[in-house]
Amino acid sequence: MLDRLIPIKKPDDFDRFWQHAKQELNHIPFRYHVIETYRNEDFEEVQKFSYQGAKNETIYGMQLIHEGIPRPTMVFFHGYGWHKGEPNDYLDYYQIGYNIVSIDIRGQKGLTKDRYPYHSGDERLMTRGIMNPDEYYLKHVYQDSLQLIRIVKTLSYVEQKHIILHGGSQGGGIVIALAALEDVAYVFADVPSYTHFKGRLIGKHGSVREIADYISEHHLDPDKILDNLQYFDNIHFAPMIKAPIFSSVGLKDQICPAEFFEMAYDTITAKKVLFRYPEGGHEGGGAVHHQQKLKQSKEYYDEYERTT
Questions:
Q1: Distance, CA of 59 to CA of 124 (rounded, Å)
Q2: Cα–Cα distance for residue pair 134/121, rounded to 1 Å
Q3: What distance in Å separates the CA atoms of residue 231 and residue 20, rounded to the nearest whole number?
């Protein structure tokens, strides 16, 4: 049934859909709360915090802060089914000089729940609200993330013109969309998800298998489902990106196939670089690429210090 999916087509109201989604954020109370603060020998200040995201959900996160003047800040988004991580996961970037922000994406392994009463889908996150893009799970995830960026820009220790997004897999897909929807300074996106839903449905790649299985189990019209998913496909977000992007793929990745992201990458007009790792699976470039990102992060931070 899936092999007859309709061609990729950007919805006529794509821009209007996301403009309205951003306007909805104006009605979310600006509830940002620091839950706990402590320090240790590696971090001047560690904060656990919460804020209100879409549909009245409380989003939980962690910040690693340098005391003193505002600094460039890196905002991290984790992979599917994971959580915000621990402070030491970000020590390399913190030691360069960046503040760090990371959140638990709704409904996954962290503290953030997903209690919205969806009218379609089931316990599988990627199916929730699938019959209506206006209540789809990813819309809520992107709104949570946009609200986070708005909050981060108000914090006294953040240099608001130097916010850097970082994500891998699910997180990589999220930061591509965010960079299209919000002004940021730089983007690191590894093995990005949420690109070319048509191909991922046919091949049942990664988390999109949940949608493909749901279509089959409930005998749904795949054309209608794919039509709904076009509002979240990075093929349509990519041309809107203005910030420089530092990206990577693994050419043997069967979870987020490289050729799918490359279709989006080719349409990015901002300054960009893509590392292709011939033997890389979903880990992409692994430790090798991590060193490339640290090098680029250091160069960015050094340039910031020279010019401020």
A1: 19
A2: 14
A3: 13
Residue 195: both structure tokens together: 């690109």
Signed CA dihedral, 264, 265, 266, 269: sign only: positive
CA distance 229 to 197: 7
Domains and CATH numbers, the chain: 28-307 (3.40.50.1820)
- Which amino acid belongs to residue 87? P
Q: How does pLDDT run across 139-151, given as a tens digit for each residue?
A: 999 999 999 999 9
CA dist 71 and 66 (Å) reads 8
Q: What is the pLDDT of residues 215-251, one digit of tens each?
A: 999 999 999 999 999 999 999 999 999 999 999 999 9
**CA torsion sign, 46 to 48 to 52 to 54?**
positive
Cα dihedral across residues 77, 66, 57, 29: positive or negative = negative
Cβ 257 vs Cβ 205: under 8 Å:
yes
Closest by Cα among 278, 250, 293, 237 to 15: 237
**Cα–Cα distance measured from residue 256 to residue 276, given in angstroms and rounded to the nearest whole number:** 13
Residue type at 252? K
Integer Rg of the chain from CA: 19
String of DSSP letters for 188-200: EEES--SS-HHHH
